[in-house]
Amino acid sequence: MISFELSDEQKMVRDTVAGFAGNEVRPAARASDETGVIPFELLSKAWDLGLVRGCLPENVGGYGDPRIAVTGAIVAEELAYGDLSFAVHALAPRLLAFPVLEMGTEEQQHRCLSPLAGDQFVAATAALMEPYFDFDPVEMRTTVLRSGGDYVITGVKCCVPLAMESETLLTYVSASTKDGLSPVEAFLVPRNAEGVRISEREKHMGLKAVATYEVLFEHCRVTSENRLGGERGINFARLLSESRVAMSAMAVGVARAAFEYARDYAKERKAFGVPIATKQAIAFMLADMAIEIDAMRLLTWEAASWLDKGLDALKESSQARNYAASAALTVADNAVQVLGGHGYIREHPVEMWLRNARLFGVIEGVAIV
Amino acid sequence: MKILVPIKRVPDPATTIRVLPDGSGIATDNIKWVINPFDEIALEEALRIKERQGAGDVVLVSIGQQSWQEQLRTGLAMGADRAILVKAEQPVDTFAVARILAKIVADEKPELVIIGKQAIDDDSNQVGQILAELLGWPQATFASKIEIADGRCTVIREADGGLETVAFTLPAVITTDLRLNEPRYASLPGIMKARKKPLKEIAVDTLGLDLHPRVKIKAMKAPQKRQAGRKLSSVQELVQALHTEAKVI
Fold first, then answer.
1. Closest Cα of chain B to A333: distance in Å?
2. Which of A40, A301, B216, B243 has the smallest C-beta neighbourhood within 10 Å, fewest atoms?
3. pLDDT, tens only, B215-235
4. Which chain B residue lies closest to A62 (C-alpha atoms)?
5. Distance (Å, rounded) from C-alpha A41 to C-alpha A57?
6. How many domains does the structure of chain B reveal?
7. pLDDT tens digits, residue range A187-202?
8. Predicted model pTM
């Protein structure tokens, strides 16, 4: 059976996060984009919603709520509808929390999740992307080698959000089966470990309010208890799928923001005595944008629902992400077009959303849904 | 302290309201329903009083159809402890609502009732006052600040000419104004927990009350569209227009 009906809880989650994103996040988005800083009070308010703490187990101080990928997609869409930068920043702690929650050993859960179960926002992050044009998450150039009982990590990561303020960098690396490891492993690297060097903050086209960094690992030695999942290792395909669902959901949020703004503008703005929305050239464009958004969301939710069933969703999540990446860009671009000259100036937010929407085609995030 | 917070389900203030062509009511399709914003402020205040006192029981009550439990669940997600839905298929007027609430108060015996000063749908601004009268309790309407200590309550209320401070002993009825507080968002864990909190349903006809309506809605119509203003080039012209067209001077 296929159902598109959300549960009562999911509707309530959607309405709550939508209210927060609309009333609090959106009004702060432009200033955050200009200054590169997200107000801490706003992060605190989002933290109070339990976005991270809710799913953590009760024995580390969380609320033990079930983790549902479809609900995660709803949250990601609504927050990104408010502001993509804010969504990425507020959800970044999930980059560490969720993989540890899902695949970490009991000791790792206690060590890494307890600090995230407090009353105040705590930064946490993961390092996946690398600064190479042929970056492929299953063939990364950052490597790990066994050395005695320890592991030694060497390589460069980029676009690591909040790296400077996070205690632990969950670092994804290529490993060798000769060492008895899977092709991709993840390590809990303390930020101040010897051999970790964090560069200057990166400067982006969009997503300007999120501080991201290049991180250099120079023969960084970590002990065996920092291998995520211990001897079991990780299910990287699943983490990648979760990440792609999250990115797709955020793309839906950005696209919807742009579409709704353009639609409302077109109903108000008059040319030749009538609202421009009544002109077919505009109306068709708006209709196509609405269709794209629903299509993006359906692909995203489909992939999410496979994850919720515990099934492999690598194909579905990759399709969702690929589709969302190009559709979000098209929708945001069309939104600028509907506003015409006004769309290009900073008085309106659509140019910011166009810059933000470009992210989805180039980023390979990690699990935050 | 036990606090009763009556809440009403109303259309989202951001929704565009359309009157039905036959004038019998408003079109309810595609309307998003929310807790009346003033009642949400009342709930927030009740939760803050409970948090300040470190203990207490915040009970929600609503009077309406089965679907109204959605708003009760939202209130539970914000932090209320339990909820009562008085099921009434027919609409009830303010006097009937007050009588039902008086009955609930008699059963629940709260020390305080906090309710929105008015609902944003019909803007009656009557229920809190009638309820206080039926109970014979003190009332403080349009509260913008509430302080409670040793069974005594001090309320700053927004009167027409400025702020008025009133003090009285509990139990009492307080109605809330806009500036009393800023309601919290329900948290995700709160939403998950809300499902497990008790929600009691009572059929309205089991209460044995006379609820026949004193107020009848004869017809509804949308307000006339306001005409756009126009710019005048001189004071003389303005005076002329006020005199001959608006006929106000």
1. 28
2. B216
3. 888 888 888 888 888 888 999
4. B189
5. 26
6. 1
7. 999 999 999 999 999 9
8. 0.89
Give the model confidence (pLDDT) of A50-88 as tens digits. Answer: 999 999 999 999 999 989 999 999 999 999 999 999 999
CB contacts, 8 Å: A66 with chain B: 192
Domain A126-232 indexed as CATH 2.40.110.10: yes
Cα of B80 to nearest chain A Cα, Å: 15
Q: Is A47 on the interface with B (CB under 8 A)?
A: no
Q: Is A364 known to be catalytic?
A: yes
Domain that holds residue B20: 2-222
Of all residues in chain B, what percent carry a pLDDT higher than 70? 100
Contacts of B74 in chain A (CB under 8 A): 12, 15
- Give the CATH class of A8-122: mainly alpha
Q: Where in chain A is the domain with CATH 1.20.140.10?
A: 236-361
Q: Is residue B87 part of a domain?
A: yes
